[in-house]
Amino acid sequence: MKRSGPSTPSPRADDADRGAVPGSTLAIGDVARRSGLAPSAIRYYEAAGLLDAPPRVGGKRRYPAGVLDQLGVVEAARQAGFRIAEIRELMAGVRAGARASEQWKTLARRKLPEVEAALRQTQAVRDLLVASLDCACGADQECVLFSPAQAAVLCADSLSSS
Asked: How far is Cα 71 from Cα 10, in angstroms, rounded to an integer?
């Protein structure tokens, strides 16, 4: 959902750094330009419950300048691998008055085992691929990866000529 162009502002950047006037509101195009996100991504985040629906003036969304910081947190959470439901939980907790750092830590503690399992799976895939490079397919050696019948399928000359 990221556009090419300016990077997402740091969640710590303040509004003055981005040219926002305190108390002013921003059109969705301004938010998109300043955040580096497509307007459709901002609307999606709103529909998904990651952002509060902004007031409308003349039928157009008018976001408070603080939405840029909220989007920075959302993007950091996405980069950390959090799913939309997890980010929604993070942002809902913050809106309910919970400290963002505590919300983040709670989610991170839950996420780490999932990430560690994915890393183990990725390592297993890598190990299989590396081992397959040492396969002596077609030689008189027994294949360490496949049964003789599977190796016959993989190493059959008829398959390589198709």
From this structure: 9
Please, what is the Cα angle at 91 between 13 and 68, to 5 degrees? 30
Query: In angstroms, how far is CA 44 from the centroid of its own chain?
Result: 14
Q: What angle do CA 47, 52, 53 make, to 5 degrees?
A: 65
How far is residue 130 from each of residues 125, 126, 134, 140, measured CA to CA in Å? 9, 6, 7, 20
What are the residue ranges spanned by the domains of the chain?
15-98, 135-160
Dump pLDDT digits (tens) for 151-160: 778 776 544 4
Fold of the CATH domain 15-98? Multidrug-efflux Transporter Regulator; Chain: A; Domain 2 (1.10.1660)
Which residue is associated with the tokens 């947190």?
73
* Alpha helices (H) in the chain, listed in sequence order: 28-35, 39-47, 67-79, 84-95, 100-133, 148-155, 157-160
Output the pTM of the full model: 0.68
